[in-house]
Structure prediction request, 1075 residues.
Amino acid sequence: MAQIVHISIKNFRGIKHLETNITSDFNCLVGRGDSCKTTILHAISSALSPSWNLNFSDLDFYNCNITEPFEISISLIDVPQELIIENKFGLYMRGFNKITHKLVDDLLIDDVNGELQEALTIKLIVDSTLEPLWFVTNEREHEDKQISANDRARFNCYMVSDYVDKHFSWNKGNPLYALLKNNSPQEETSSKNIAIDALRHAKTKINEHDFEELSYTIEQIKREAASIGLDLKNTNTTIDFKELLSKEGRLSLHDYQVPFRLKGKGSKRLASIAIQSALTKSGGIMLIDEIEQGLEPDRIKLLSRVLKDENHGQIFMTTHSRDVITELDSTDLIIVHHNRSNSDIRINKFEQKIENLQKCVRACPEAFFAKKIIVCEGATEVGICRAFDQYRQRVEGKPPLSFVDCAYVDGSGSELDSRAVQLNEADFRVAILCDSDHIGLNSKKSYLKEEGIRIFDCEINNDIETQIFLDLPWLGINELIDYVVKANGWNEQIIKSKVQKYYEGKFPENWLESNTREMRIAIANASTNKLTVEDKENKRSKNKPDWFKRMDHGEHLGRIIFKYMPELNLNVTGMIFNDLSSWIDD
Amino acid sequence: MDAQEFIEHKKVFRIAPAGYGKTYSIVEALKYTQGRQLILTHTHAGVSSIKEKIKKSKVESSKYKVETISSFAQKYANSFFVGEDKPSEDKPKIYHPFVVNFTIELFKDSLVSKVFTSTYSGLFVDEYQDCTQDQHNMIMTLSNLVPTRILGDPLQGIFEEINKSKIDFPQDLLNNDFIEAPSLSIPNRWLHNDNNKELGNKFIKIRDDLEKKQPIYLDDLQCSGVKILEIDKKISDNERIKFFSAKINSLLSNQVFKSLLIIIPEGDEGKGSIHQRAIFKSRIDHGNKLTLIEAIDHNSFYSISKSLDLMVLGSKPMKYLKEEILEKIFNVTIVNDWFNVNGVKSKKGDNLKKGQYLDSVITELLEDICLEKILNVLTILNKKYKFKGKRPSLYYEILKALKIAIHNGSSAFDAMIEQRNTVRRMGRKINGQCIGTTLLTKGLEFDNVVIINAHEFTCPKHLYVALTRSCRRLFIFSEKKILTPYKLI
Prediction:
């Protein structure tokens, strides 16, 4: 069944111009609020609308400028056979190359890259008259041909939105009706006939009722009429058949006696999705705006999973929910970026399934709603970022990071660089917050910089703990040791022995007051359980957890850093975070 | 082989003499076919005649589509061509072969052939003898997509002189795995209703003689309804016209002859051309009852509309208007009555005011030349000054094209192409009292046929087509009673 392969939108609502290929049958649009995700769904739904008319207003034009018509072109493959016959749109057929993902108008050009598939492009144009016109179009030199609502209905494209009430009625143009037609394509089963028959039956019943309460009044009228020469002796009361018929959506789904339209928002949306899922099982295009609306997290997850796994048509949905994203693959995501300063809208998609990125989707779904992402080397750095966000708000009076569309995610150490590159390629602005003690990563840093990724790191050969322990005022170091002792339930002896292990020479008795470079390095090494020469000779591996390698510990570490921020300003630690702060605000 | 058996073959052809119900056999076959059938023929006259017969037999319109081979090919070529190098439609000799060859390539492509196969489940081709080599190749390509049934008659292959690359029918089909169905054997045309049964039988012998290139004895045709009118070789041209005119006018005014076709043999020096026929008509048809049958693609349609466009740009507009437009559309004598190369001639007496008015109209046009004003001038000349078109249809078609051009804001030439295509698509009806040639009337039938100068036929096929257009009565004007329409002999 029909599948969208390309979308082009011009001058429609917030979109000045957008062209994008669609490569998947399951598409989840994510992006910050007002990034025009919903507009994209509306564009698809309007261009493939089964209604014979749609109401548009001046507000539907980009910048409300009605002098430029808006145009929405949707190209589809696997279109229904009935549409490609000669007297329908066969002569408007275009070729689609699945491998190069290109639409071709010259069908005789030999393309070594693979077979062409038949494709049609549907174009909706609305100009200042606000009258929508639908065409089948291509780029060959012949006039576009209009396509009727009936033919558009063959694409079975429906949208679940806030106004779903009509989805529960059997009227033509609604998904229930399309499903009915799908199930019995040969028969002329029209729900209209079923409805009329039932209503006739109802009318007979009503006719039998004598409406005795009204008879006195009727008698009075009969007498009056007779006195001026009008015979009304057969007058009685019953219901006007026309009234029964004129109601739209008169035959609709009910839960016992309660019409579906009176159900709760979540249930209504689920019911509507269910009807359309049934349609997409036999092909069809389902559009769902904000899939999570009105649903609990567990139902959101279930719904996302089921839609993805049981879809046989094509689905486009938008979401703001991390619960949706965690259920999906990275290839399902379409990331919509809206640059408000120049109204540019860009769309990005991860074309191949990348295992690493997949973990990122699961681990940090929030990232996919942001514009700037700080990829942290590990849990420590993530914790520090949390503390940094609070520090910026409380002390510097700046807005939360989420307000400036910035997120921070865990880069899981060794995958840090590739994750950063992929996010960067997906058009996010990416920064890395990392150590400088890893030779492998250090060697990649210049490449990452070339790619436009900002790197916030320590002095060469330092991990972040070492950097902090070198830079922090001694008072701060004492506070950190206190915290670690308490957090681990140690006593002074235990911590002393841990630090002593890394101290070369005679370990000073009053080590907690011994503010020397050697002591700072010993504490730093102890905090990361660094392997000593002796450890390496005995082939011992690290088996104890680092002091701060947990988000909450990292956060505490951060709190101490930022407490002493005024004193850190001139050293490396201070510079890292000052620079990071201006990158965030840029 | 009956209709049902005929359509069961995937590739089959049948030879059918004129009047033996060739078209009828297609209509019969439609009763047994599944899905939509494409029926192709050559002429627009053929299209409308087939359509009419199918309608009478009450076959659902969703079961068939009738088109000329050219318009079918054009439809696909216009829809799928991409590029700049498509020849212009006003050069039919280059344009038509291009279109057909392009279409052949299209149908080798799987996507386009899918459009064809999802639209049609079978193909009929009528009048196969008139196919060019290119068209034949196209049909062979299509025959690999859907079951294909072909009908035709080698003896009616009168287009072969025009088609440079003629085909060898039916040999070319046999070479392409087509099987031959027994030819039709009943002269249906003359058995129907009150038609001339005897005449139908007479044609059997004539056909036989023509196939064997024997001399044709017109007296062999003698039966009720047939009149041989021998022309005295010695009389002058004027007397000859009087001879034709007297007979023809007596027919034209008689209700019995309301279905009448006059055929003029085509030949060298423009014999039978639209121009010659127009002159002939003006000399014999005093009551203006005859319809002049025009070729849809006649070059004058295109050349005059091009002139209309050029006038807008031209440097000597008045001379141009007179010589390239007015004299081409209207009767030259009346044009010269009112115009010289400098403008409207000055008139005296009764015509003084009319001349002044016409002068003002022309002056207004020359001040600001545009298609609207040209249209206005042509209409005024026709309505107020009784300018008659050389051929009525030419005048009206030019008028229509101008209106389309003004409406679309296009050139008159483009509008003419659009309008010719519309006529092509719709097909056109030809009936009543007409004057035409064998090429223009092939596939049609009339109750009464008048053949002018039968001795001028130089090809057996043209003569056969001319004779067999008649269902009831036949009038043959000829200098000789024995015809030898074989150029080489």
